[in-house]
Amino acid sequence: MTFYDNFLFEEIKKEDFNKMMCCFSPKIESFKRNEIVCDFGKNPGIIGIIRTGTAITVRNSVNGNRTILESLEEGDIFGEAFTVCDKLSDGIYVVCEEDCQVMFMDYRSILHPCSNGCISHSRLLENFFFMLARRSVMLSRRVELLSRRSIREKILCYLSMESCSQKSRKIRLPMSLSNLADYLCVDRSAMMRELKKLNDEKIILSEKKTVTILNSNIETEM
Amino acid sequence: MTFYDNFLFEEIKKEDFNKMMCCFSPKIESFKRNEIVCDFGKNPGIIGIIRTGTAITVRNSVNGNRTILESLEEGDIFGEAFTVCDKLSDGIYVVCEEDCQVMFMDYRSILHPCSNGCISHSRLLENFFFMLARRSVMLSRRVELLSRRSIREKILCYLSMESCSQKSRKIRLPMSLSNLADYLCVDRSAMMRELKKLNDEKIILSEKKTVTILNSNIETEM
DNA sequence: ATAAATCTGTTGCAATTGCAACAAAAGGAG
DNA sequence: CTCCTTTTGTTGCAATTGCAACAGATTTAT
């Protein structure tokens, strides 16, 4: 997969792409597991696109809690939403999970039509818009999840969402249980305890990274 | 304020606006306090713009918890992020706070250039993009807030954000304390208790809807 | 192959939080 | 002004959650 294959350049001709690249002057870098891809505290206004590999957006607070704000995969875009209040971007990083390659660009070069008058710029804008909309949807789901008041509700909400997107009652967890706890913003051991309870009550059946929803009226319980 | 004055139509000529309105076939409706402006469960794919008044996006879960997902003010746009998984839009409503007037449109009519070939459609798209970006930022902040593990951290995070956007240590709360508790997704009485503690510890000074941050290193405590 | 690191699974205990219930204050409607 | 609704402020108690600390399993690195 090349950067050209990214959804951002969908329906844009190769020559227009190359022309636009000159306007954007993008930087391409590679990262290994656990390396810091981007420190928002130091790079406000930057936009990155994951070409290969995976990464996570995390916040490390001074009292030692690590929170996973987002999971990033091939083709995902990051950065455009942390460009408001510098203070709040502090402690937020993108960290490489599986070795990845990333393209960095400046926020404004996408927004403003290039002086070269690249013909496909409006299409680019539209694509970017779609990506933002998708991101907005993802964030809404996240808020939806985090607004649940108890660990049980968070787990069930998460499973319901995954079940929905995986189109099956049998869900394969896309991350480790430790990371899931960080994602749900709860204590890992407390989450394990709750998972066990849900198993005992025969509401779910979980083994390793596979969870099956047994109780059919989960949606109505949330 | 007319709909034409909305940010969505920034830099779009009045005649182009009128022409586009034919393509969008928008519906304009008025609402009184506590009336349901929109039920996402019944209207997927709809987009609304608040012309006057205020509203909130809430989710009523069957076990009686009410969660405020968003506050909507004049010029705000809602709906575009709840168009994924129908099941999850269930129980989510926009409810009128202060009497308001709303314009409803179809999501797709903005995305796709009208067949009439309205000249300003690309500008409209760009404006819509900005609104989405702003929304994305807002949701990120929300996730940022809700990912805090304790009530104390949530309060301090909220105050820090408000202080940042109000550019002052003396903050005027834009909602009632009851609504703030719903916004932070915590029990109201527990929040009151924590507010009292913060006052006792001289970290904040709160009286009615005015809160002053006394301790200067709040950011580092989160 | 072996060591090191990470992840899973458990538990007791303490702290935080939610719940229920109430009284007082404030705000709106007639 | 007076009633009625909403909001604020409090508290005891029970339930949930986080913390700390393990041991075993699994994965990754050398």
Q: How would you describe this protein?
A:
Two copies of one chain form a homodimer. Chain A has 222 residues and is an alpha+beta fold. Chain A folds into two domains: 7-138, Jelly Rolls (Sandwich), CATH 2.60.120.10; 148-221, Orthogonal Bundle (Arc Repressor Mutant, subunit A). Chain A is 39% helix and 24% strand. Chain A is built from eight helices and eleven strands. Chain A has helices at 14-24, 86-89, 107-111, 121-146, 151-166, 177-184, 188-200, 218-221; strands at 27-31, 36-39, 46-52, 55-60, 66-72, 77-78, 92-96, 100-106, 170-172, 204-207, 210-213. The first copy, chain A, has a four-stranded antiparallel β-sheet. In chain A, strands 2-7-4-5 form a four-stranded antiparallel β-sheet. In chain A, strand 10 (204-207) and strand 11 (210-213) form a beta hairpin. In chain A, helix 4 (121-146) packs antiparallel against helix 5 (151-166). The longest helix of chain A has 26 residues, at 121-146. Chain A is elongated. The model of chain A is unreliable at 218-222 (pLDDT under 50). Chains A and B meet through helix 4, helix 5 and helix 8 of A and helix 4, helix 5 and helix 8 of B. The structure holds a DNA duplex (30 and 30 nucleotides).
